[in-house]
TrEMBL record:
Biological source species: Lacticaseibacillus paracasei subsp. paracasei Lpp14
Presence of keyword Membrane: yes
The keyword Membrane belongs to this UniProt entry's keyword annotation: yes
Bilayer-spanning residue ranges: 12-37
Name used for this protein in its record: Pyridoxal/pyridoxine/pyridoxamine kinase
GO MF annotations, alphabetized: kinase activity
Keywords: Kinase, Membrane, Transferase, Transmembrane, Transmembrane helix
Length: 53
């Protein structure tokens, strides 16, 4: 059996519906074996929260 795999290189947010937290279930749903390469680890998505300090 030949299993197809995929490298997902994105940021990983702890909260929210963005980045790798969306890509992982999509890849698995397509029957791919996902391997992760996080580019940044974030506690939450910063969009709309104002200036990052």
């Amino acid at each position: 059996m030949n299993t197809k795999s995929l490298i997902i290189s994105q940021d990983l947010c702890g909260v929210g519906q963005v980045s790798m937290s969306v890509a992982l279930p999509l890849a698995a749903g397509l029957g791919l074996t996902p391997y992760v390469l996080p580019t940044a680890l974030l506690s939450s998505h910063t969009g709309g929260l104002g200036a990052n300090t």
